[in-house]
Design goal:
Specifically methylates guanosine-37 in various tRNAs. The chain is an alpha/beta fold. Helices cover about 40% and strands about 15% of the residues. The strands form 2 sheets. Strands 2-1-6-5-8 form a 5-stranded parallel sheet. A 3-stranded mixed sheet has the order 3-4-7. The protein binds adenine.
Length: about 240
């Protein structure tokens, strides 16, 4: 998969390619990341990329032309068609289902805004979709784009090691929060480890983990329970 990021700070995106699962996906040839700076496509001595908003008000708005030229350069850099996504708090919420959809694509172009936003005409003409990573405002789309890159990279076939993908499956499969995890030592000044995890009884362990996942989701994120893939046995546990 190829991801192009249009940003005034393309070095930010280079950092994604340097570490962890995203870095490994790059090394394994599963993901290639490319930054495009609209300033490189701006005219004049000052290479201006923004201007004051019509109608007044604080902040600056990003100009159409440098952004459009950067998006077009990114599009032209590879033959596969790309979905262009503008990262913004006005976008649809990013969910794991959306991440799965994006991870299956050959190519994405992520557009990061700065200042107060981007000229609306550019969004209408060039953008296929707007995505938000949450109901808060960041000073730019770069962190949001990094979130998309990370979430999509780890779903590429072969990006995760076996142990990591097993952990991922439980969340992916049923939409519940994960259960608590423990490792050595058994006795610690911070407390012990639940007996059942050391019982060697796999059915009991699986049931305990399921109850923990259900309980945590019910307490912390009741909104997820309605959407989760629950068995009749799960429903009975929740009704108790
Ligand atoms: N840019 C600024 N805030 C954002 C958010 N919450 N999600 C995506 N992009 C953003």
């Amino acid at each position: 998969m190829r991801i192009d990021v249009v940003s005034l700070f393309p070095e930010f995106i280079d950092q994604c390619a340097a570490f962890g699962v995203t870095g490994r996906a790059g090394e394994r040839g599963l993901l290639s990341l490319h930054g495009w700076n609209p300033r490189d496509y701006a005219e004049g001595n000052y290479r201006r990329v923004d201007d004051r908003p019509f109608g007044g008000g604080p902040g600056m708005v990003m100009l159409i032309d440098p952004l459009r030229a950067a998006i077009r350069a990114a599009r032209a850099a590879a033959p596969m068609p790309a979905r262009v996504i503008y990262m913004s708090p006005q976008g649809a919420p990013l969910t794991q289902a959306k991440v799965r959809e994006l991870a299956a694509m050959d190519r994405l172009i992520l557009l990061c805004g700065r200042y107060e936003g981007v000229d609306e005409r550019l969004i209408r003409a060039e953008v296929d979709e707007e995505l938000s990573i949450g109901d808060y405002v960041l000073s730019g789309g770069e962190l949001a784009a990094a979130v998309v890159v990370d979430a999509v990279a780890r779903l590429q076939d072969g990006a995760l090691n076996d142990a990591e993908s097993a952990a991922q499956d439980s969340f992916e499969a049923d939409g519940l929060l994960d259960c608590p995890h423990y490792t050595r030592p058994v006795e610690h000044e911070l407390g012990g480890v639940p007996e059942v995890l050391m019982s060697g009884n796999h059915a009991h362990i699986a049931r305990w983990r399921r109850m923990q996942s259900l309980g945590r989701t019910w307490l912390r994120r009741p909104d997820l329970i309605d959407e989760a893939a629950l068995s009749p046995a799960d429903r009975r546990l929740l009704d108790e």
